[in-house]
Design a protein that fits this description.
By secondary structure, the chain is an all-alpha fold. The protein has one domain. The protein is about 70% helix and about 0% strand. Strands 1-2 form a two-stranded antiparallel ribbon.
């Protein structure tokens, strides 16, 4: 209707993180990050945990642990929960101020560049329907992130990040891109598993010749 004020656009995640860095005066817990997000959607926490899993300096095997929050959040989206629940042990995970700043130095520039291309368009779902469908896709990808598959974690985490950005802005174009990345992720995983299987089969068949 003419004259009806527009709903304020939610604060970008990059802005929230920059504000937290500026106000940081000690260790930062996951609980503090969650509280800083306020009434932000499940998708925002999903995006945050997905981006953490994209950081290349993470030690091998760490995604088995860091992927669990993705499973928890996406499962709650599928269930239709109204608020995000995280276990106390996860909420108490703490980063030093220096670690948090370095983490944001890697995350924020990427977020700022990506957020420029996100806007409401071509969204094919009703609000709750969209969250559950995207949550189901992210749940499958999240489980893959936690698996010890060589080169099998990065693309699923990237797909989750794109899908969570899509749902925060109801961006159908980004939704399609995220799904395409997810399909590519499964193709890569299938190729890796196939290669490993072929190598094991070859080794088994020729073992008698070597021993």
């Amino acid at each position: 209707m003419p004259g009806t004020p527009r709903r304020p656009h939610p604060t970008r995640l990059s802005t929230i993180l920059q504000r937290m860095v500026a106000e940081a005066d000690g260790p930062i817990t996951v609980a503090r990050i969650r509280d800083a997000l306020g009434d932000r959607s499940f998708a925002t926490l999903l995006l945050l945990f997905a981006v953490i899993n994209l950081i290349p300096i993470l030690p091998p095997g760490s995604t088995a642990i860091l992927g669990l929050p993705l499973v928890l959040v996406s499962a709650q989206m599928v269930w239709g929960s109204e608020t995000v629940w995280l276990p106390k042990r996860l909420l108490d995970v703490t980063l030093s101020e220096d670690q948090f700043r370095k983490l944001c130095d890697k995350i924020v520039p990427w977020l700022i560049k990506t957020e420029r291309y996100i806007r409401p368009r071509y969204w094919p779902f009703w609000p709750k329907q969209g969250e559950r469908i995207v949550g189901a896709i992210c749940l499958i990808l999240s489980i893959v992130v936690t698996l010890p598959i060589l080169f099998g974690n990065w693309l699923p985490a990237f797909s989750i990040a794109m899908l969570s950005l899509a749902i925060t802005e109801r961006d159908g174009a980004m939704l399609g891109f995220g799904i395409a990345v997810g399909i590519a992720a499964f193709a890569v995983i299938a190729a890796v598993i196939g290669s490993i299987g072929a190598a094991l089969t070859y080794t088994w068949q020729h073992a008698s010749m070597w021993f």
